[in-house]
Amino acid sequence: MEKKVIMIRNGASFMVNAIVKNLEEAGYSVMPVDATVAAVNGGRKESDIFLLYLGDYVFDASDLLVYLKDLCVEEEKLLILLGTPAEMATVETTISPALIAARFERPLDIKKLLDTLARLMQVNDENARKKNILLVDDDNTFQKTVKTWLAGKYRVTILSSGAQALMYIADNKPDLILLDYEMPVISGPQVLEMIRSETKVEAIPVIFLTGKGDRESVMKVLALKPDGYLLKSMDQAALLKALDDFFEKKKYEQLHETPN
User: Fold this and answer.
1) What's the pTM value of the predicted model, to 2 decimals?
2) Per-residue pLDDT of the chain (260 residues; tens, 9 = 90+)
3) How far is 15 from 19, CA to CA, in rounded Å?
4) Where in the chain is the domain with CATH 3.40.50.2300?
5) Domain 4-128 sits in which CATH superfamily?
6) How far is CA 231 from CA 10, 152, 207, 208, in A?
């Protein structure tokens, strides 16, 4: 994992230089850029993490803030604010708070900044790789169809029974299990119950696949508290969107979780 960050600032200062020095001593490669659209655009490909060192300039930097917002949305850049409450509030009138990965008031706690950077880089690295989805379903045709649909974006492992799934996750940790609700021998609910009872695998997300979309059937599925459910009648576009939304939500939760 490459430890590289971009420091956006309005000119060099004692505090900016001190932060850069601390980051470099911690093994980070820091690329300082001026607080202008042109400068940020020129360096944006060097890292996915931006440190925005605020100052009075931010009150008249609407073009820069709009550009940073677009980068956070379109290129999934991670933005960390370093400044006063008033400066950060100004930023958040343009950039939604949900798009801001972290905030630090000056004077900075460097240790907390370093800890946050390490966590964000780990989350970003995990989310950059291709997700591994375990599909558990006894319908061979459905298995092959879904694997074909998802192959361009996800790594898909297919298994035909709950027993096979339990053996698989004993040695492998998929990012998500798509689990058929109705299977012979060991049903989907039984598999979920066994997963949740094992400390080693209990945190693996499980989404049920069901062929029944009526309210009573859906409520029965949700009562088991999976991470969601999907109808087996969904087309490719709907399935991909549902999975993309799921992983985007997980990423947001990871980025904004409170460290222990």
Assistant:
1) 0.62
2) 578 999 999 988 899 999 999 999 999 999 999 999 999 999 999 888 999 999 999 999 999 999 999 998 888 889 999 999 999 999 999 998 888 989 999 888 999 999 999 888 887 777 667 789 999 999 999 999 999 999 888 889 999 999 999 999 988 999 999 999 888 888 888 899 899 888 889 899 999 998 876 677 667 777 778 888 899 999 999 999 999 999 888 887 877 776 55
3) 6
4) 4-128, 132-256
5) Response regulator (3.40.50.2300)
6) 52, 21, 10, 8
